[in-house]
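Lab channel / #folding
Pinned by the channel admin:
"Please post every new chain as: sequence first, then the structure tokens as a reply. Keep commentary short and put observations after the output so the thread stays searchable."

First post following the new format, from NK:
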Amino acid sequence: MNPDLHAFASDEPPEIQVRSHDRYHKVMQACASLPPLLTAVAHPVHESDILAIKEAVDEQLITPVLVGPEARILLAASKTGIDVSSWKVVDAGHSHESAEKAARLARDGMVQAIMKGSIHTDELLAPIVAHGSGLRSERRLSHAYVMDTAGYHKWLIVTDAVVNIAPDLGIKADICRNAIDAWQTLTRESRPPRIAVLAAVEVVNPAMQATIDAASLCKMAQRGQITGCVIDGPLAFDNAISMEAARKKGITSEVAGDADILLAPDIEAANILAKQLTFISHADAAGIVMGARIPIILTSRADNLRARLLSCALAVLVVEARREGLIK
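Reply from TO:
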């Protein structure tokens, strides 16, 4: 080892952030008085799927309907030692059929939500967005990562890191609307959420489409085409979440340094940002798809327990918010 660097080497484990998870507990408390959601779980054929479902059942967040190859589902359950005899199973031959049958159950009002098992997201969503599915709304579907991170002073929503690959202006407007609904469902605050439209710079540059889209979204909000929020952009990430960074750059904005929602230019930027917050900043990142007539719970085998339960809790709150007329 270089002797000049020896003083900086250490065998000590990395510092671990310690926090109380008060935000998480408040969400769980809000669900405590609400009934569990009857939820179609599409293709839960791995042990991790069964374990995640059991955790949500134990917290009284969902009542599962397992949709997939029955033999594989029961084998996965037997490997975990979990008794699933009280859970309804709808047999399906393969993952495509699992998604189709889950969507049909939702369309027919037999379930209130759909949860992702061991199936690709695009495969899960295909029958939901299909014409005639009965589950589409007037909006484009989009994903919201609800982040609880020790490095920020409140909830932070990152969108869209999963569904829309290269959204144009119209799709970004729907992503904003869906994120507003997710934020209102989560916080129940009376003030409008603050949306930062992210780009690499803070000025409109004709060579950078993200900056043009940001300026257009701001004007759409001013003209009432997007309602229930305050939008500003283009904003670089540092200016969106740090008032000090915004001050140093001379940015005067109601959003800068205090954003509730970060709208990324495309799926790569959003996904990298969300994964960085999750794996480096140790954020809990719950995932939900908005824009359909039912909430769609997206969990990953890499998610920790809090993130999986928070994803289910969000779906419970979405259904309740719609029942109350808070969101569409």
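NK: The two ends are 61 Å apart (CA to CA).
TO: also worth noting, Confidence is low (pLDDT under 50) at residues 5-10, 12-18.
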